[in-house]
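explain this.
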Amino acid sequence: MEAVSYIILIGSTLLIVSVLTSYLALRVGAPLLLIFLGIGLLAGEDGIGHISFNDAGSAFLIGSMALAVILFESGFDTKLASYKAAAWPAMTLATVGVAVTTGVVGIAAHYLMGLAWGEALLVGAACSSTDAAAVFFLLRVGGITLRDRVRSTLEIESGSNDPVAIMVTILLVEAATHGLASPIAIVGELVLAFSLGGVMGLAGGWLLVTFINKANFEAGLNPVVTLTFALFIFAVTNVMGGSGYLAVYAAGLYAGNVKLRGALELRRFHAGLTWLSQIVMFVMLGLLATPREFAGMILPALGVAFVLIVVARPAAVWMCLLPFRFSVRETSFIAWVGLRGAVSLLLALVPVLGGLENGQLIFNTAFIVVVVSLLVQGSTIGTMARALELIVPPRRGPVERVELELPGNADQELVAYTVHAKSPAARGQRMPRWAKPSLVIRSGAVVPLHKAKPLQPGDHVYLFTPQHRLPLIDRLYGGSRALDQNDREFYGDLVLSPDATVEQIAEMYGLPLSMSNARLTLSDLLRNEFGGSCELGDRVRMGGVELIVRDMEDNIITSVGLALEPARVTSRRRPLYQRLIDIGGRLGGWWNEQSFRRWKEREKQRACRAGVPAAEPRHDERVESRTEV
């Protein structure tokens, strides 16, 4: 009994120290997961704590459960809109990218560390998985907002490459211990694992959602149900021969994109549980490491880390994203932020459990690679995003949302806003009846509604609204895009109707015209240029101006911006390979500077004939130009 109490005391103390230390990391923006790893090292047998923990089997069991929780939350928090924006590039990175990274790092491990090819490829497989939690924590701490396509690519890749890396690692361990199976058998095993994992995940997600919505449990019991379902789906899929990691991710993805009772409370619960899982995994893996063994292999391991960061990851990213028209800067950023984390360490335990001769050496190498990745890449994410000019203004939507469980179909949400200084509400604009606040808090005190008028910048307002009206209310309280001079650089100087034709705009403003595009509307022109998947902020050059996707509703362009002088902060983003037709279009689109200046002086008078009054944009995530015509 006393021994059990000591174990609980030690474990809880380590968690408390980790949480308290994370406060400092949040203040300074340090790689938080690296701090958790350091606490485990300090508490281990080579540190000041002298805690001896050498049970790789228990570590793998606890780590697998923690990883299942993390993957469920990763899927639960991913919107299908992200897949619409970045599914193919992200999945290519999660499959082909894992294979390329495994091969390149395996070659480096073979020649630098003298490992056999099978063991060297295991080092590559362990280091092929990226850590989504580490990436987005560092972006959040640094106040960095990326355009959705880049963020979605990183998010989906990090969530979906774990199952691929795990399957590759298991196959390599089986090949090293029992011999290499036939290619047909390997392909069959992969197809079975992923198809069964996907089917079981979607079925389990549907069962979970149906159970919660029909059972009508108390709110406090729903998180318990989702957690037990996630672990059950993970385990039963593994027993049946499928990929449990893929299944639990797919279950979370399904549950997070359908109507689910108490979804917001569940998101908060799983977000906290994910952080607990991350802390447990890193502290435990730090305890498992033996730093005195690093002395004889530190230099080769650093060489492997260098190859991963400088060669393998960039090569995989550039190869995989080549067909998807990412700009050079976007591709460079994605290549740089492929952080390695707890999954890499967990995969490195598989060779140890498989009884390989150099299993501990593989784990130690992966440990050093993770530390270097968190130190080098983790500490420079903000700097790299700013240097590549990929940061966009933050959202100005609601600061908090609370889903209300009301009888029948009366779906309402309680939303809270901090009134923006340049919002229509702060300027005294009369609010529609459906947008009037129910509560106003000013300087920490509740202000009666009849005394709160006019609303002031910094007021906290709370109101009840159906979800479909949130975009409209965002604009009333969250700020007006055209009133912010900085934002005009991103979204243009004028607002045009998306139904105006290219011929009308070209004739009215004296712009160069391609006859093949003459009868296209501005909306059709933008969609054709970007393959039907436009994003806010996408740009097309037309002579000396740029047409910009300024606002969208349900994937339909509702307003087009016209930039008179393309913003310097959004300097030209060139595709990896410029198409010949683009070069010809640029030569044919020569613009007379003197005529342009005269036209600029008359643009306000002419705008009313080409444009229509349009609501200002809801969001401002995307500002980068992907191409020119």
